[in-house]
Amino acid sequence: MQVTRELFNDVMVPNYNPSEVIPVRGEGSRVWDQNGKEFIDFAGGIAVNCLGHCHPALVNALKEQGEKIWHLSNVMTNEPALRLAKKLTDATFADKVYFANSGAEANEAALKLARRWALDVHGEQKNQIIAFNKGFHGRTFFTVTVGGQAAYSDGFGPKPAAVDHCDYNDLAAFEALISDNTCAVMMEPLQGEGGIISPTSDFIKGVRALCDKHNALLIFDEVQTGVGRTGDLYAYQGLDVTPDILTTAKALGGGFPIGAMITTASIAEHLKVGTHGSTYGGNPLACAVAEAAFDTVNSEEVLAGVKEREQLLRDGFAAINEKYDVFSEVRGKGLLLGAVLNSKFEGRARDFLVASTKHGLMSLVAGTKVVRFTPSLVIPLEDIKEGLARFEKAVADVVNG
What we know:
Elements: H1 5-11, E1 23-27, E2 30-33, E3 38-41, H2 44-47, H3 56-66, H4 79-91, E4 96-100, H5 103-121, E5 128-132, H6 141-146, H7 150-153, E6 163-166, H8 171-177, E7 182-187, H9 201-213, E8 217-221, E9 245-248, E10 259-263, H10 265-268, H11 284-297, H12 300-324, E11 327-333, E12 336-341, H13 349-358, E13 361-362, E14 364-365, E15 370-373, H14 381-400
Parallel strand pairs: 3-13, 5-6, 5-7, 7-8, 8-9
Antiparallel strand pairs: 1-2, 2-3, 4-10, 9-10, 11-12, 12-15, 14-15
Helix pairs in contact: 3-11, 4-11, 12-14, 13-14
């Protein structure tokens, strides 16, 4: 069968509009399409491919586990899941782990746990969930409602109730919204889809303090920021703020689908047998690959290397901007960076993405005015330099029309 982009239109539901490029092979931070054209990958599958493509540790883990056991229902546990859970709890604030298949499912579990905890401990009146405008927490109906972008949640009928939003980094607005009836606050410790927006120290510490004051659980959605993306294993570890529940996915599997919700023992006990579940959650194949990814990332060498690579990218963007004057700032932390377009180019982020693809660079957008970059945490320095050179050609194309 000949596979072409036109086949997508014939057989796929039209909720995506993918590029004409169909990649067929990847190695490290380089990808080749059906025609043999090479790309430098500054997108990382949207912060997923934390070790690039076909990293030997992940390939070996998949092969080894693939010859042992692939799937078990949750009537039985398995060795890879237990090893990974132990490593997650050893490396974080958490005592307990729940495995799912995606960030949305991990967030769904976190929200259901928070509601169940509040009902059990405080009563049915304590049900309010607060989240933040421009936030993104997944595409299930509960998580897309909690996410602060109405364009994603409107048009599907009545939404889950008792969910309220305010602006990120506006502590006064948050303080006016939270009360003793708030059961949980869900937030990204650095907003990704919303435009690569970092929290101020006063804001994030203030949110934690107000959650404590009103006996509300603080949920950190670290689906995009977790597993080394910001230069810390999890972003909360660089913010001097500890959540009650944390969700992790994307980079956790290095490209193999897996998600997890982690929390303390006292909160976890409210998800009793039968209250929640997942057919594939804790799948041995997924957990074996994730364990290899986690072991590789959770090292001083890799985490320090993230900060080195961040600086190289920032220096490169600054040099490009000095020539072409297209960015107002570069936001973010570690290898979750967003080049914000200035007023002359506002709304044209996709033009930069399309031009980058033409010149052999894979990039992303975060809204219409931010070009987003989430490359491998171990991308070779020479690939960063080559990728920046290709991005400069793309910028020149857009600027020169």
